[in-house]
Amino acid sequence: MSAAMDTESTYSGYSHYSGHSKKAHRQGRDRHKSPRSKDGSRSEKSVTIQTPPAEPLLGNDASRAEEGQDDNWGETTTAITGTSEHSISQEDIARISKDLEDSVGLDCKRYLSLTVAAVLGLLVFLTPIAFILLPQILWRDDLEPCGTVCEGLFISVAFKLLILLIGTWALFFRQPKADIPRVFVFRALLLVLIFLFVFSYWLFYGVRILDSKDTNYQGIVQYAVSLVDALLFIHYLAIVLLELRQLQPMFTVKVVRSTDGESRYYSLGHLSIQRAALVVLENYYRDFTVYNPALLTASKSRAAKHMAGLKVYNVDGPGNNASGQSRAMIAAAARRRDSSHNELYYEEADHERRVKKRRARLVVAVEEAFTHIKRLQAEEQQKAPGEMMDPREAAQAIFPSMARALQKYLRTTRQQQYHSMESILQHLSFCITNNMTPKAFLERYLSPGPTLQYDRDRWFSKQWTLISEEAVTSGLQDGIVFVLKCLDFSLVVNVKKIPFIKLSEEFIDPKSHKFVLRLQSETSV
User: Fold this and answer.
1) Which family does it belong to (predicted)?
2) How many Å apart are CA 455 and CA 417, to the nearest integer?
């Protein structure tokens, strides 16, 4: 805790937050220790992961401490804790270690497939050249003169190989975006086809040309040209299977996040389940709002409180009949729970009121802070009366005036774990550099943005697990459901086929647009 306070006090914008007494520290520690002492009887398999905050702008206060804060909280004291709200069991820790071991196997498999593809590609490009050079090396004196025809064929082979090399580099040698659990079926089939094709050419070349030492050099060169032409056609086939086949939308998938129910719809073509999962994850990081477990804490604590309200005791002992009293207590507890919707209504109304109030304070504070910044033109820089600053220094100068309002707003909306002070300063410096308005600066904080908007270390999950009843290499079909699971939540994907649409045509003659004006005595026309 003291390390976090030292880190926070190094910034000038937070000098007024670090000037609180040791008594306030003891009160804050006692307030956070009391819930933990009540939870001392929980299972031994449950552990709490404690992570030190990296450059904390805001303390990770629990939501229950936030509910008891008034609008003037934070003026004199600051309570900081570095304890995470997440807890995982020993089984989860064992599963994480197993996933790390599996990732080593995936890396070996990926490098092995890249090595096989590179060796096969090198064999493909060296084969036509070897077909042309081997007769010149082994029995050059016995070859028939070829002349201009062979020289033209040499130029043709050279340019075709160059085109094939560029196309292969663009299609196959791209940095992989993810590791998939199974092989890509079409790519594996293409590699097998290329290997069989080149092997058959070498077999024919060895039997009909090398053994017999054919002297018709023009025919040998044309044989090499035919190999290059066939390789170009295989490359066209690869483009159709790997790139063009999946472009036409055939299925609509609904992606639902298991924790909060947020959903999106996407259109996909003919893809396997594992490749469809990759497309879903790429769109998830772009379209879904960042996962915030702190927003679920209030609902869970409220549900636990109402479930704890039902307690039945048999005071007369196990041998006596106290069913009437038990039924009365159950009915009283049920009536008490029936009023829980009123509590929920007033809780949400009070939370919305606090959010709107602190949002208004934040907007006013940011607008006032931006009024102190003025961009100097080139001719004004020589005669500027004040001190000139770069964007970083300007951001550090105006940040303290808005820091308190921003801190309280992020705590109220439970976004403090996604915004460190360094990230806010960088964003403020970026806005000042590009002459952006206060509204543009606040856009990131007033509403939760997509997952990619935030720091990568705060949301990125390196390991996803694909759960499917069908084989992951099989294609998408109507009604298939698969799940993408990470440590904190799951994405449930439901596949529906786009229905066949029958569109008919009806012709309307433009000359049929004739109208008659019907006049009546009571009309105004």
Assistant:
1) Belongs to the Vang family.
2) 10
User: What secondary structure letter does DSSP report for 496?
Assistant: E
Q: Which of 67, 51, 73, 69 is nearest to 4 (CA)?
A: 51
Torsion angles phi and psi, residue 485, rounded to 5: -120, 135
**What whole-number distance in Å separates Cα of residue 474 and Cα of residue 485?**
20
Q: What is the dihedral sign for C-alpha 434, 440, 444, 449?
A: negative
Q: What are phi and psi of 248, to 5 degrees?
A: -75, 120
Summarize pLDDT for 432-465 with one digit per residue, the tens.
Answer: 999 889 999 998 888 887 877 776 665 566 678 8
Given a cut of 50, whether residue 480 has pLDDT beyond it is: yes
SS (H, E, C) 244-299: HCCCCCCEEEEEEECCCCCEEEEEECCCEHHHHHHHHHHHHHHHCECCCHHHHHHH
Q: Which residues share a beta bridge with 495?
A: 253
Q: Helices (H), strands (E): how many in the chain?
A: 15, 7
Neighbouring C-beta atoms of residue 45, cutoff 10 Å: 11
Q: How far apart are the first and last CA of the chain?
A: 84
pLDDT category of residue 211 using cuts at 50, 70 and 90: confident
**90 vs 175 pLDDT, higher one:** 175
pTM (predicted TM-score): 0.66
Closest CA to 370 of 436, 426, 424: 436
Q: What is the mean pLDDT of the chain?
A: 74
Residue pair 168/223 in contact (Cβ under 8 Å)? The answer is no
Quick one: pLDDT at residue 452?
79
